[in-house]
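TEACHING EXERCISE
Course module: macromolecular assemblies
Task: Read the component lines below, then compare them to the predicted structure of the full complex.
Student: A.B.
Group: 4
Components provided:
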Amino acid sequence: MTVTLHVCTTCRAGQPVAEGDATPGLRLHAALAADAPEGVTVRPVECLSACSQGCAVALSAPGRWSYVYGRLEEADAPAILEGAAAYAGASDGIVPWRERPEIFRKQSLARLPPIGEMP
Amino acid sequence: MTVTLHVCTTCRAGQPVAEGDATPGLRLHAALAADAPEGVTVRPVECLSACSQGCAVALSAPGRWSYVYGRLEEADAPAILEGAAAYAGASDGIVPWRERPEIFRKQSLARLPPIGEMP
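Instructor-supplied answer key:
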């Protein structure tokens, strides 16, 4: 299944950003988009409302639990992509705990149940 | 539209809970379920992975942004239900900022874009 990795591109991660410079969120997005594995669509989003815990990303797909992770930086891109690929590859989107990258185990901000069907 | 208010019932909110006692999450769920407004389905969930920011709830519906809120307690139930009703009543699920209850404005843990369609 193709899953979506949403990346907050407005995030300043609590750092001062000079006018014209890329935000930490934009830099994280670029690093992720440059190397997205098969089955993972990297999509920019303006604010995931996790501003005090930025940079933040969210993984989601139809019928699956969604996951939000925070306190991320550009250097975490390889681990984030590894975790996103595992999520895409798991038939139900639930990756065994030990197979998740450490940042997914330790930097979870929230998870959400699959979105219900229209009543 | 009927929206879902997910309530983490396993949450201890950092408090000791004696054996046999209801967790803060269970108490919050009971308060919310007892008075759910029309269009809001209150659903218990085991862990929203926001343990350090509990109690936590999540609002979601098909085709809409999802929202996760934290640092909640039983006494917040009326404000949470007010916010959930506004979310249910907004045609696109986006409630104008000033019309959101204060806890929704100040205690956001994350928001997630609508889940994409199956590719």
